[in-house]
Amino acid sequence: MIGEDIDLTMDMREQSTETRGFGVTINLDAFLFGILFLAIPMPIPKFTMESKKFRSAAAMKVIHRYGILDKVVASKDGSTIETRNILRDSETGEVLLTQTQNEFNDSLYNLTYPAHWAYKNMGAAYINTGLILRNVEVTDGDITGMGSPFDFLFEGDEIASQNGQTSAKRYYVGRFNSNDNLRLMDGSKPATIHGPVDLKVIRSGKRNMQTLPIGTVSTVHRAPIDSSGVHPAIKIPDSIYVTQASASEFYDKWKINCSKILVNTCDTVRPEFCMDYLINLIISYNESNYNNLFNLCYSDSISVHDLYKMCNCKCSPDTIADESTLDMPFYNPTCPQNLSSMVTHSWTFGSCSLTMNSLSGNPINLDSLQPIDAVDTSSNCSKVFVGVNHTDSVSFCVECISCDDECVDQSALNVAVSPYHMGMYNNWHIKKSYTYYSRRTPEAISSSRIRNDGTFNEFTRFWHPPASNSDNWLPLGIADNNWITTNTVTRVNSAGADVENKDALDRYSAALYGYMETLPKAISSNARYRQIANDNFEDYNFRTTCKFPCFAEHWNFISSLDDSNVVISDATSHTGNYSLKINSGYSASVFRDINYMEDDSLIIEDTLNYKYLMHNGCLEKFSPDSGKYILSAWVKEEGLCGPTGYINDSIEIAFSGASGNLILFPHGVVIEGWQRYESVFHVPPAADGITITLYAGDNAAYFDDIRIHPYHSNMKTFVNDSRSLRLMSELDANNYATLYEYDDEGRLVRVKKETERGVMTLKESRSAYKK
Questions:
Q1: CA–CA distance, 537 with 722 (Å, rounded to integer)
Q2: What angle do CA 152, 96, 86 make, to 5 degrees?
Q3: What is the spatial distance between Cα 199 and Cα 145, in angstroms, rounded to a whole number?
């Protein structure tokens, strides 16, 4: 027993009741008096009083005794197995070492390594949450005034510091490779604070994952501890006593789901015919009005809108703040001066500009002009002569700023990011799993002894203790080739789900998650995450944003939707509740870049500017490698299908940067009105983009359950109800569905299977409550 709590509750109460009653009873006496009948009433008063008093006292004592579980004894059919807990973790209280026995009554031991021994940031957050450090010296964000900052602060800590401001500001604790100091990061760059400041840890960088195991070792006969000292120590016995061992490594730097960034790119261009048109307009105006077209004192001078139209600029008039100025001329009603007294003058209209400059230095005078002498296309200018003797010249410069919005990957921009805030750093997930594989005793079957055989002939422990208790345990055993990697996680989504891994033979498996990344939509073996695509059109309403120009899922047709011709329809569906409806003559397409990016650093550290820069940190969208793939889908037309199915609806696969486009048509039997596409296509090595386009023929068409995966892989997809999230359909490797139906209470009542002969009922059940 390690503790005892005693709860004593006293209850004392008193109750008094007093009752008073008043009443009258009437008695009537009647008799004959001679010949008279007399009645005499007699009232009798009544008074009652009752008094009660109740007193009670009660005491309740509850004793709670706490203890650490020492052993568990299980008995069944005359057999008894005892499991004893020998060692516990001092930080968490979790059992680290257990002892039990086999059928020979030999002791079996199992040792577990907790995660926080090797990864400090997976430890308990209570260690520094709420910690306040006063008068800490900070220089350009570097924490320099603490002797041992790593004893108090950890990478990923969220720090609040007021630093003389009216309100506290949040920072992250980070560290650069070029500097071993801890650094306060303000987003992607060091905090611009100096001097002694007060710091408070508002969220620890430790992630409370200390109970996760990073390895186990099983032994027989001998316990893997050394009890000779004051405190027990981990000590693996000779290899002849080790029967099983496994280990895991965790990692905290992962790619993240990131949308593209909307970037406004601008180029300065010279309009093709602007200069000639402008000069001719000036000459024509001067000849007809004998005035300077650009004279600020004349209300019929050229307007902003005229200049915009004549120059054919791409800058939109919408960029002008006051649209009423579009039709206003360039003159000044007060007429303080005109161009005749100016050497240089310029106007800005929208994102375009017109500049006139006197090359001779004399005031501009456009009363008489001569034809264009030269056009300088590099500077967007034209030179004209003015005056009778060509003594002066004026340079006309028109610049049109052509700006287009473009969605660009964050990784391609090398934009500055905050990796801790975005979840790229200090986001712990299992990376590799190992098992120890080596020769076991006996070497020859003829010398086998059942009781003692089966242990390793040789063994190297994976985790080694540090030289100091403050350091991490080290995975030195990884150098032993007998430690075999059984699984490697290569991609994790934002919800923490494993979306790509590979086995001991380097065979990849991948999964696609939908419904805000909470439920699997597709799983595939022998394929990578970027090589598979699937769209069942069920979870479009689960997007976290209603409108975002660069929003992009792994792969879907959401960017092709409009309000009338390409819509998500609930009128019919192959599986689930929805399908994609495309009206006759219209199409829907989805494009994805094909990028062959290696798994290099997610973040590069700009040591010159001390910033974190995004570099290949985005989780890939659909980006198939070159090779052989399969596309499968289902289609249904409005109206009756012909004898060969739907011959007017098609799917086109097109590549940018390479040839090899392909048009697919559905084939095979029509099942419940739906016909399947299934075709093999090749992604050329030179392709840098792939577009999948769905075309509707003479009638409106419904498309559903579209999938793409490598030819030598296997894919299975799932469709869930968008409201209850119950599994509605499961599509096999051939894209045929198993359908699940439920009653109003959510109980499974029917299972159907789609086959080439139609939809067959496999199982049906009914249940009811007796009334």
A1: 10
A2: 125
A3: 12
Mean pLDDT estimate for the chain: 82
Check: CB of residue 536 under 8 Å from CB of residue 716: no
Per-residue HEC secondary structure of 12-60 comes to EEEEEEEEEEEEEEEEEEEEEECCEEEEEEEEEEEEEEEEEEEEEEEEE
222, with CB counted inside 10 A (0-12, 13-18, 19+), is middle
Question: What are the backbone dihedrals phi and psi of residue 148, each rounded to the nearest 5 degrees, phi first?
Answer: -135, 75
pLDDT, tens digit, for every residue of 420-444?
888 889 999 999 999 999 998 887 7
Task: Report d(CA 116, CA 149) in Å as an integer.
Answer: 19
CB 26 within 8 A of CB 44: yes
Q: Give pTM, 2 decimals.
A: 0.76
Q: For the chain, what percent of residues have pLDDT higher than 70?
A: 75
Cα radius of gyration (the chain): 42
Instruction: Give the angle 262-268-270 at the CA atoms, nearest 5°.
Output: 140
Q: What's the confidence (pLDDT) of residue 86?
A: 92
Name the amino acid, one letter, at 674: W
What is the C-alpha end-to-end distance of the chain, expressed in Å? 53
For 555-575, what is each residue's pLDDT tens digit?
A: 999 889 998 999 999 999 999
User: Cα(483)–Cα(261) distance, rounded to whole angstroms?
Assistant: 43
Closest CA to 551 of 231, 342, 261, 313: 261
CA 736 to chain centre: 30
Closest CA to 572 of 637, 644, 645, 649: 637
Is 112 within 8 Å of 103 (Cβ atoms)?
no
Helices (H), 201-341: 274-289, 304-311
Enter the DSSP assignment of 239. Answer: G
For the range 459-468, what are the long-range contacts, defined as Cβ-Cβ under 8 Å and sequence gap of 24 or more?
459/236, 459/239, 459/242, 459/245, 461/217, 461/236, 461/245, 462/215, 462/245, 462/247, 462/434, 462/436, 463/113, 463/117, 463/118, 463/214, 463/215, 463/247, 465/233, 465/234
CB count, 10 Å around CB of 603?
Answer: 19
Distance CA 721, CA 294 (A): 68
Sequence-distant (≥ 6) Cβ neighbours of residue 553 within 8 angstroms: 621
Helix or strand run (H / E) with residue 422: helix 419-422
100 beta partners: 108
Spacing of C-alpha 699 from chain mean position:
39
Question: How far is the C-alpha of 663 from the C-alpha of 653, rounded, in Å?
Answer: 6
